[in-house]
């Protein structure tokens, strides 16, 4: 099931399904003021939720996460949202943050490898090129151009105008994985596969946990007939997001065409659990029945 349009705004339910987080857990994080209540989620909001999920899986208490966030905002000039702007991870029961390849305790601000106070002071100024207000305005401008690109796509504007909007978003924020993926998809639909591949790969390098970028890169390889690389990317998307229904669908097709019926059955079954009633489910159910019938015939 190749995706012809990239969705960068997720409903609350879709975001929960993508990240495998319950409504109860999401409301709990909102009540604890770790994230803002929202009906829809963009790329940055999903980043914040992914970080919270990783910390929760490491059994870090919410109160400690909140203390770490508050401490980082206080200590690091120019940082407003540590969950999306920094790489946080759990080390035992402590929260660590990576700064220019060094590791710092999030709450105490102490570097962990014995650096002297001068090194710590330099790292705490790790964003000296801009003042906080200028950086914030630049991020807002990048988000503005990204949203403009989405709006232009929704209204059927000329491709040149859409491309210009996304390119401006990337110019302002080179880590805008959403804009990179959307540019890739525009060029994919125009069959400019080399350029599309470049943007998709850049998006995966910008965010290695971006399942959609892996999925769309898989679509590109599938379209070019490179089934091995397509399968590799679809499976990478599933490692990131095991409930990615479209990826299960495409993986099932590839395994079926490669005469690996048991693996195909596994992914058809997974797909139908996630999407039991769409038109694509009708096709999936038909293919699954064909495989099961063939297995019965072989067993006679």
Given the structure, what is the number of helices? 15
Cα-atom Rg, whole angstroms?
22 Å
Helix residue percentage:
55-70%
Topology as a string of helices (H) and strands (E): EHHEHHHEEEHHHHHHHHHH
The N- and C-terminal alpha carbons lie at a distance of 34 Å
Q: Judging from the principal axes of the Cα atoms, what is the shape?
A: globular
Strand content: 5-15%
- Note the main sheet: 3 strands, antiparallel
Number of DSSP strand runs: 5
Give the rounded overall mean pLDDT. 83
Unreliable spans:
2-7, 112-116
Category by helix and strand content: mainly alpha
User: How do the strands line up in the largest sheet?
Assistant: 3-4-5
Walk me through what this model shows.
This protein has 15 helices and five strands. The protein has 300 residues and is mainly alpha-helical. The chain has a domain of 71 residues. α8 runs antiparallel to α9 and α12 packs antiparallel against α13. The radius of gyration is 22 Å and the shape is globular. The two termini are 34 Å apart.
Features:
300 residues, mainly alpha, three-stranded antiparallel β-sheet, two-stranded antiparallel ribbon, 15 helices, 5 strands, 66% helix, globular, disordered N terminus
Helix-strand layout with pairing:
Layout: E1 10-11, H1 12-19, H2 23-31, E2 40-41, H3 43-57, H4 62-75, H5 82-85, E3 87-91, E4 94-99, E5 102-105, H6 117-124, H7 132-154, H8 159-172, H9 177-189, H10 193-206, H11 211-223, H12 227-240, H13 245-257, H14 261-274, H15 279-299
Antiparallel strand pairs: 1-2, 3-4, 4-5
Helix pairs in contact: 7-8, 8-9, 9-10, 9-11, 10-11, 11-12, 12-13, 13-14, 14-15
């Amino acid at each position: 099931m190749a995706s012809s349009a990239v969705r960068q705004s997720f409903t609350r339910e879709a975001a929960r399904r993508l990240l495998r987080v319950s409504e109860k857990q999401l409301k709990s994080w909102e009540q604890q003021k770790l994230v803002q209540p929202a009906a829809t989620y963009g790329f940055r909001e999903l980043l914040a939720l992914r970080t919270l999920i990783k910390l929760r899986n490491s059994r870090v208490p919410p109160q400690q996460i909140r203390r770490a966030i508050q401490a980082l905002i206080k200590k690091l000039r120019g940082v407003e949202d540590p969950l999306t702007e920094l790489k946080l991870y759990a080390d035992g029961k402590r929260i660590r943050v990576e700064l220019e390849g060094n590791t710092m305790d999030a709450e105490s601000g102490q570097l962990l490898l014995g650096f002297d106070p001068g090194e710590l002071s330099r790292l705490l100024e790790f964003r000296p090129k801009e003042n906080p207000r200028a950086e914030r305005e630049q991020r807002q401008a990048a988000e503005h151009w990204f949203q403009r690109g989405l709006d232009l796509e929704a209204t059927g504007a000329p491709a040149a105008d859409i491309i210009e909007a996304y390119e401006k978003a990337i110019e302002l924020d080179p880590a805008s994985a959403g804009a990179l993926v959307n540019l890739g998809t525009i060029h994919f639909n125009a069959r400019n596969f080399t350029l599309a591949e470049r943007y998709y790969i850049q998006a995966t390098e910008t965010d290695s946990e971006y399942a959609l970028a892996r999925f769309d890169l898989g679509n590109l390889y599938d379209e070019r007939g490179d089934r091995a690389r397509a399968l590799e990317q679809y499976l990478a998307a599933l490692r990131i997001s095991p409930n990615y229904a479209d990826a299960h669908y495409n993986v099932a097709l590839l395994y079926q065409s490669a005469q690996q019926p048991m693996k195909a059955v596994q992914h058809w079954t997974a797909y139908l659990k996630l999407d039991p009633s769409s038109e694509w489910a009708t096709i999936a159910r038909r293919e699954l029945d064909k495989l099961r019938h063939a297995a019965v015939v072989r067993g006679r």
